[in-house]
Amino acid sequence: MSNTQKKRTRVDIYGQPYTIVGTESSSHIRLVASMVDETMREISSKNPSLDINKLAVLTAVNAMNDYIKLKDRLERLENELNRAKD
């Protein structure tokens, strides 16, 4: 199977089954799902009254926040590397 062919991977996130379709490996999809599940459970343990929709949105906000921080850090490091090359 080519890396560009889509694969179906079944995962459980916060007790709900999902079938994820994508080109990433099944192990990668399972890792991502596990991290989402872990984050949802962590947020839920601190805010047990949240309904699943709010919990999912807060999980997405946390993930996007982490992504932006990493993207900014990568950009700064790339700039430093480019300056060091000059």
* N-C termini distance: 43 Å
- Whole-angstrom Rg: 17 Å
Provide the domain count: 1
Q: Give the helix level as a range of percent.
A: 55-70%
Report the sheet-strand fraction: 15-25%
Write the layout of secondary structure elements.
Layout (H helix, E strand, L loop, with lengths): L6 E7 L2 E7 L3 H21 L5 H34 L1
Antiparallel strand pairs: 1-2
Helix pairs in contact: 1-2
Tell me what the structure shows.
InterPro entries: Bac_CellDiv_Activator, Cell_div_ZapA-like, Cell_div_ZapA-like_sf. It is found in: Cytoplasm. Keywords: Cell cycle, Cell division, Cytoplasm, Septation. The protein is of the alpha+beta class and 86 residues long. It has one domain. 64% of the residues lie in helices and 16% in strands. Strands 1-2 form a two-stranded antiparallel ribbon. It is flat and about 55 Å long. The mean pLDDT is 95.
Summary of the model, kept short:
The chain is of the alpha+beta class. It has two helices and two strands; from the N terminus they run ββαα.
